[in-house]
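yo

u said u wanted the structure for the complex thing, so here. seqs first:
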Amino acid sequence: MLGMFCVRVCSGLMGFRAAPRSLHSFPGITVAQIDEEVAKLLQLKAQIGGDDGKHQFVLKTAKGTRDYNPKQMAIRERVFSTIIGCFKRHGAETIDTPVFELKETLTGKYGEDSKLIYDLKDQGGELLSLRYDLTVPFARYLAMNKITNIKRYHIAKVYRRDNPAMTRGRYREFYQCDFDIAGQYDAMIPDAECLKIVHEILSELDLGDFRIKVNDRRILDGMFAVCGVPYDKFRTICSTVDKLDKMPWEDVRKEMVNEKGLSEEAADQIGEYVSLQGGMELAERLLQDQKMSLSKQACAGLSDIKLLFSYLQLFQATDKVVFDLSLARGLDYYTGIIYEAVLTQACVSTASTDAQNGAEESVSVGSVAGGGRYDGLVGMFDPKGRKVPCVGVSIGIERIFSIMEQKAEASAEKVRTTEVQVMVASAQKNLLEERLKLVSELWNAGIKAELMYKKNPKLLSQLQHCEESGIPLVAILGEQELKDGVVKLRVVASREEMRHGPNQERTHQIDVSKNWFWSF
Amino acid sequence: MLGMFCVRVCSGLMGFRAAPRSLHSFPGITVAQIDEEVAKLLQLKAQIGGDDGKHQFVLKTAKGTRDYNPKQMAIRERVFSTIIGCFKRHGAETIDTPVFELKETLTGKYGEDSKLIYDLKDQGGELLSLRYDLTVPFARYLAMNKITNIKRYHIAKVYRRDNPAMTRGRYREFYQCDFDIAGQYDAMIPDAECLKIVHEILSELDLGDFRIKVNDRRILDGMFAVCGVPYDKFRTICSTVDKLDKMPWEDVRKEMVNEKGLSEEAADQIGEYVSLQGGMELAERLLQDQKMSLSKQACAGLSDIKLLFSYLQLFQATDKVVFDLSLARGLDYYTGIIYEAVLTQACVSTASTDAQNGAEESVSVGSVAGGGRYDGLVGMFDPKGRKVPCVGVSIGIERIFSIMEQKAEASAEKVRTTEVQVMVASAQKNLLEERLKLVSELWNAGIKAELMYKKNPKLLSQLQHCEESGIPLVAILGEQELKDGVVKLRVVASREEMRHGPNQERTHQIDVSKNWFWSF
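structre next:
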């Protein structure tokens, strides 16, 4: 019955409006029913598009993602070049892996967070998921190619169906910048280099003061053991400890006792330890600690922390590194040392612009790098379970982008989005061919140049374009210059001008050689 | 009943093998049935994993995708740097867009090829698809941000569920390098710059001789009209013409007449036109052509081809450009000029290594760049249908990678995968601390340096590492050098050595300054 209405009402919509009377002749149908059907169809029509039949697109990017405009790209390139420069200085190679992996490659690696993985639709063939981080694909790559040692960096986007908080730099599509050292080496040497790298990058990026907190999974586990935490509660208590950077101790203790069912004595003992911060001397003290020294694991971790600090001294990096027993990173696959870098200056406020998350305004800028040792992950992929020890660090680049963007907004300095050195312009009409010839000569000489794509652009609009996009030089062609076989060059900032040609005496001291162009 | 067997047989597998006799006491079950059940369970076990209960991963990347190893990355970086260098020389900005778009953004843009789009699984929320090219996201970006003119490049991966032919550089995940100029400008000026860019890039990459074929959608449509092709057959006849680079004219004619139902006369008239190739003079001749000149569209296209060639002459790029009436690119959105670059030398054979595609060995290397003018695409996204004229080019980078990789394989030149300038080594034991201190000093001075992560590496293995990875210099520490406060520097290739320190007379002419390090 609805089908018949559809035909009628649709034809009505197309202009052949049938008299209501004719509908009345259908038995058992009220006008109200007709109205309802019409409303449904109009709604359907609205969904399909406007009256002109044109489909109305929702003009947006997917939730939690963003485009980068040229200015953001310029900042992104600057940050990447600092980071890649550091990775290369430390002799790293680079690899790349596909954006999606077989679904089962990611299965069982992320614990609870697995629900945040993006799956691809089953369109026949393999079941695929977008990568969640770069560490698991790296481990898969090592096992697949039977590589037992490599020092590599990998910069690429990863995907998490998380709750986005974009103004604070939390996206569903975001970059990771990973540096990892895989191989069977002597203790703490590659680990120390990872920390040195974080130190170098954060210093170079000039984001304000920072601290690198260091701890060790074995110290945490040993501490839990000697404090009387039952073995099966290690991981869940560990994740409560992990909240100490966001919650006061009282609340953390409450969660341990009330939610996780830990005894009050155990919680209080943990409380004493996790309040400790220091350097090599703290590791030494804890090695003498009556309780802590009962755990072999803890002692192994503490000795390595000592060794680590001795290497960091040689690297002149101890000023920023602090041994912090409250650090307990979330990921399950860490087996030894763990670390996290935080910016300690309340940075121009990444949080306060985030209207929806006003409550978090007081939270510190948070972690901008993190990592640790994961000696078991590659073995999970190897058919024979052969282990490849690994240690690595991931730079939290989106947060750094956010800060750099805000710094750029705040500063007077204009971010250039092109590198054009010279604009080829004309002062009179009908000089397009001459402009095309000159710009081509400049391109062929490797000089970054452009011209306006108009036959007869106004000189003023050509000069304005230079000012807007920061082009330092204009080559101006005019009848007189062509007659004299010269080009008039103008420095945009100073308006200084000179004529330049084969037989031309220089009227200024500007040395117009190729090198001179390069200096702009 | 199977359940009971499971328990028994499983416990058997775990070592508590029950005597077969006890099973015989179950009524109505034969030994054969038991054997069958055992076989099923063993199969199940094999699927789950080996005896240790470990899951066996399928260690592979998704179909049609690949990892890039460090050597491939080094080649990739070299190619990208040439291409980006050219784009920047022409004053392009860059943007980035997310890897996935709302599904409806891609709908209706790719015609038949839409079936090749990767969809994401519906996990609640928006319906998403992986981008199929960079052009549609670019058009969406322009419409969304109301940008009416921009010159931008975008280098990123795109995704097509196509039949992969990986040794020939055809993947399901592959890079596109796009350069586009959007804006209302005077005819053929930006179009000519796109061709100049293809010319520059292919020349610089040094892939052998090439041709850039040029045609215009309006000339094709005009030609079809004057040859008597019915309007509704334009697109389908156009896609048959597109096959002329892979099929002889006889077969193309057959397809037109037999499959597409075109009259023989029309086909023969088309045959005469599509055999034509030339330069500006061909465009002039066709403007005088009795039949062709009947089409206003064709005349507009031909005049623009003339104009294009005049600009290309000023760009000194006509040597490689040919006006070819058989060029008819597939995509629907082109509205004006179209072009495609092909390598004309039978390049070391991208095909012959492809065992599965032996039949295609004789096919030429094929298209390495293509593009054209698409004045209507942005308007498809704009709520008011406002048009932004665009012209662009896409460099087919995967094919170029394949060729470069094969060239690298064939040549004696070793591809370095790191940029390390100096290896910090020791000749005796117990010098780890001194090595760490020196390498840190080098890093701090911006010099690319590394050391082996062993307490006491052998000098030989340190030197071998240098030879293998092409590190040009070794700084060798020994007791005597430490006593003298110097470092011994050795040039790996020549074995030339010198001692370098504050109070040290130079024994060689090597000038060990920071600049000297940079020169390696």
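Chain A touches chain B through 96 residues (CB under 8 Å). The CA atoms of residues 48 and 55 of chain A lie 6 Å apart.
cya
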